[in-house]
């Protein structure tokens, strides 16, 4: 396993998902922390794609500056994802992680969103998880993919298999939240799962 994928995240739950979906690529998959990359990333893009590209390019530059032969042909990937709630004009959107402050627990963020939707009926609680993934290839080319899952915002947190806003995101066809799905089910239908599988197809086309 000579070639590496470095993913710009420190989120353990996300890394589990990434390794599960990209595991058949015969590439070593490391988080930026595992690769020893420490760098400040300013996510000031207006879209999920722009933020994903910013993150991937920042980590790619940090790796290149190290001039480490072990990482010279690494693929650097990053994602940006969030929850868009139609009744709240698409909020929290690209600010999903920073909504009410980055250090605020998701249980408080989710509670706030549920409060803001008080009195809003089921048919108007429509929402979607969006994930954009960017990859910076060894030659410098940047590729992006996007995955979406449609659902609605529930009335309370349910389930503990997910992270972030999973406990309030209800998927009607499964009759539960994404935090109540098994890992296998979630990987199959999630926004990140869809975007990762699309990225895998792009990498297979571009990397010999």
User: Mean of residue pLDDT?
Assistant: 93
Given helix and strand content, the structural type is alpha+beta
CATH top level class name: Alpha Beta
User: Helical stretch count?
Assistant: 5
Order of helices and strands: EHEHEEHEEEEHH
Termini distance? 14 Å
Q: Any idea what the shape is?
A: globular
Please tell me how large the radius of gyration is: 17 Å
Low-confidence stretches: none
Tally of individual domains: 1
Quick rundown:
The chain is an alpha+beta fold.
Task: Show the helix and strand layout.
Blueprint: E1 4-7, H1 12-22, E2 28-31, H2 48-66, E3 75-85, E4 91-92, H3 106-116, E5 126-136, E6 142-153, E7 169-171, E8 176-177, H4 183-189, H5 191-206
Parallel strand pairs: 1-2, 1-3
Antiparallel strand pairs: 3-4, 3-5, 5-6, 6-7, 7-8
